[in-house]
Design goal:
The protein is globular and about 25 Å long. Helices cover about 20% and strands about 15% of the residues. The protein is built from two helices and four strands; from the N terminus they run βαββαβ.
Length: about 70
């Protein structure tokens, strides 16, 4: 069974609202009225989808927290 619930950090000040996170992990991320990222459900998508969403973010507004931070 794949792991779920990777520790993700969100920097809304850096977010430009591209929506890549929502495209790759729609059950984990959402966007607010300003089109900025919102962590909707940390366990919404599998680890692979969340990693892909983090990597696809054009501004680096999303990051996986290190195991020391989690």
């Amino acid at each position: 069974m794949p792991e779920v619930g990777l520790p993700v950090t969100v920097d809304r000040d850096v977010c430009i609202g591209s929506g890549m996170c929502v495209m790759y992990a729609p059950s984990t991320f959402s966007q607010d009225q300003e089109a900025k990222v919102v962590l909707f459900d940390p366990e919404g998508d599998g680890d692979e989808a969340v990693r892909t969403a983090v990597e696809a973010c054009p501004t680096g507004a999303l990051a996986l927290a290190s195991s020391e931070e989690a």
